[in-house]
Write a sequence for this structure.
């Protein structure tokens, strides 16, 4: 039969070593598979590993802030970058939602928690208390910012005060606010703002370069503020940085801190 | 590539397996602790600030 004479010369060694084409193609395939695995691993890193390291940094920042408050050193005039300045509670995200807000919005600071835009108002001050936070990974403080409704409370605790902000009426809610949603109990003190604030709504999506959302009067840089606002910024859509999701709130209540007392907005869960 | 590594790992089959797992663990650790933390700031996914 014919098969006797066919596979004789040089074929066993070439089979063992593999011919160059086969080796190259296989090597390329392995390289691509490996690259795919590395990308998957990176996703895992972004979504989970950064959470663990950030939780640790957030914990440290919180401990340090608690210590500062206990020792009677309050809100210093010019906090150093990366230092905790306040705690932020958003009851709509659950009773355990609390983050220590740090001074500054550089990458390192934001890896430890939400960051206060330097130069914007301090909590409770006239103007606009601007805070940036991560949406995905790094503790994801602002993951669900898109789920906030108008009148949801954003409570900020400083060394000596509780400040209760509430999300402003959303786009399209302003008409009929007074007779409509404005009558609900949690909306006391919340209404469409007049004057230069007319365009400021509870939630907007802007391009990353629109810095004026954190201006004292959002959208009107250079004008002197007459209201006390809070502005939260994060990336949008999720897993992307094409746009920014912006939430504006207005101060509706401020309490001087008394021992162990928490504001009703936190205890009632409203 | 992988078969080349496998051939060059010393020892019996079981020892080779252990070495291979160690190699994988080393690479993953290197990625998680060094490469990804360096790479991440260069990527635009996580810009959350306006401006």
């Amino acid at each position: 039969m014919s098969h006797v004479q066919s596979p004789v010369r040089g074929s066993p060694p070439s089979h063992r070593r593999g011919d160059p084409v086969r080796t190259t193609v296989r090597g390329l395939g392995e390289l691509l598979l490996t690259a795919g695995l590395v990308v998957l691993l990176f996703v895992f890193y972004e979504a989970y590993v950064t959470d663990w390291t950030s939780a640790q940094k957030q914990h440290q920042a919180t401990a340090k802030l608690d210590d500062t408050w206990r020792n009677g050193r309050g809100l210093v005039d010019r906090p150093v970058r990366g230092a905790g300045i306040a705690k932020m509670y958003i009851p709509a995200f659950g009773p355990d939602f609390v983050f220590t807000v740090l001074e500054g919005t550089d990458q390192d600071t934001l890896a430890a928690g939400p960051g206060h835009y330097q130069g914007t108002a301090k909590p409770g001050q006239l103007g606009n208390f601007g805070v940036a936070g991560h949406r995905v990974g790094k503790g994801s403080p602002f993951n669900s910012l898109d789920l906030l409704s108008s009148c949801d409370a954003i409570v900020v605790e400083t060394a000596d005060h509780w400040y209760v902000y509430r999300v402003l009426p959303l786009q399209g809610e302003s008409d009929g606010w007074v007779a409509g949603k404005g009558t609900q109990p949690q909306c006391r003190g919340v209404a469409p703002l007049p004057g230069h604030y007319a365009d400021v709504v509870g939630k907007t999506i802007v391009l990353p370069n629109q810095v004026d959302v954190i201006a004292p009067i959002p959208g009107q840089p250079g004008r002197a503020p007459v209201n006390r606002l809070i502005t939260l910024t994060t990336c949008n859509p999720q897993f992307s940085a094409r746009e920014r999701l912006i939430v504006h709130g207005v101060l509706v209540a401020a309490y001087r801190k008394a021992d162990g007392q928490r504001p009703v907005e936190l205890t009632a869960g409203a | 590539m992988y078969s080349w590594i496998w051939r060059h790992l010393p020892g019996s089959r079981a020892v080779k397996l252990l070495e291979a797992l160690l190699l994988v663990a080393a690479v993953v650790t290197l990625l998680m602790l060094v490469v990804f933390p360096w790479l991440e700031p260069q990527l635009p996914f996580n810009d959350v600030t306006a401006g």
About this structure: Chain B touches chain A through 17 residues (CB under 8 Å). The CA atoms of residues 15 and 32 of chain B lie 26 Å apart. The first helix of chain B runs from residue 2 to 8.
